[in-house]
Fold this protein.
Amino acid sequence: MEPTGAAAVIIGNEILTAKVVDENGPHLIRRLREVGIPLRSVELVPDEVDVIVESVARARLRAKYVFTSGGIGPTHDDVTVRAVALALGRRVVRLPEMVELITSRAKDALTAEALRLADAPEGAELIAQPGTWFPVLAVDDVYMLPGVPQLFRAQLEAVLTRLSGTPVYLRVLYLGLGESAIAAVLDKVAMDMPHVAVGSYPMFDRSLDYMVKVTVECVDQGPVEDAVARIRKGLPEGAVVRAE
Amino acid sequence: MEPTGAAAVIIGNEILTAKVVDENGPHLIRRLREVGIPLRSVELVPDEVDVIVESVARARLRAKYVFTSGGIGPTHDDVTVRAVALALGRRVVRLPEMVELITSRAKDALTAEALRLADAPEGAELIAQPGTWFPVLAVDDVYMLPGVPQLFRAQLEAVLTRLSGTPVYLRVLYLGLGESAIAAVLDKVAMDMPHVAVGSYPMFDRSLDYMVKVTVECVDQGPVEDAVARIRKGLPEGAVVRAE
């Protein structure tokens, strides 16, 4: 089966060593949900070529679209391009179009290292991004976004305009019973309707008027309403405090 | 080589579908840094047994200690115990000690599903946690923590008292030059001193008085000071705006 949806690889020692709190993973999760592209996994990995290669290769088995964050730049810790190329079995080449962009921008201050930004997996496409000189680097549905949050966000939007999703239909039930009391009912519905995702989230905050939040979702409304009706029917009277 | 450090597997559809923002990953990253246990990777995965099995098995190849978050509970989407058992090649058994805890706590309201909380990979150890009835479930250095943030935090502390780390010595340089201008110097130091971690983080906020933050770290102070001295020497005069 062809993989669908997306997977993300967030690259950076600075995140794993608590110097920076990752904002790009949560932002990507939120935006993909909004546009209706299911997200299969997010992995935070260090700036190490072999770990990134493995992670990108695995992401491609799980998902159609792969987003990487970070490791795009001219310094020794910027290894994403090399790792993505290895994961795809492609060579790294210098893109003439990028050399031109970098040269015209740097003017007299051009260094050999600045030109590393022109390196990309062979066959890479540059997706122009309105309002900035630096295009999005993409190849085989792997989108290599920069780690700096404002750049990540801008480039992500440029990519999302090209992808199409299917928004999810979601219903939520707030229950006045604990998980152990409702597990049998949820089990049965989840088992009978595998295409509907049923989630159960216990809350331990006594100030709330419910004990468990149950989510029911699917891209189609019909099965969701059907599953909600079955859950309601299976629960004791008065168990549902509130529904959304 | 025996793996060292830690790796994390954060389990939960609710996170990947943006219903909940994961707090446990960032909290774990911060606490491990504070106690000086290096973190190799963090993976966010759905409530799917096969994906979790793969992720836990991989985490164990990368790191000595594996922390999982979420999927501990009595409902159909709580599959962590089963997945960890599979990843370790162990059977799932019902722990008499847990059955007793659950039975005495539930009193008359005991359901068959509540007893699922007593299931664990064979050989699992229960780490008592002061102030709460639910112990930490651990086996082969895999610590299965609950997803609810307040419980995750409490259980993590119970585990951390048993592990020992080596705090990292960190120096930071704030530079008034761009990454392309400093890449050659950093490259050389990073190459010559592979045991010292050198990070380079460009800032695109024009209100800052520097353009790049360079971090230099290692468990030993000597090599860090040596690397900082080499970087300073390699940079043009006045490049360092500030140091920490």
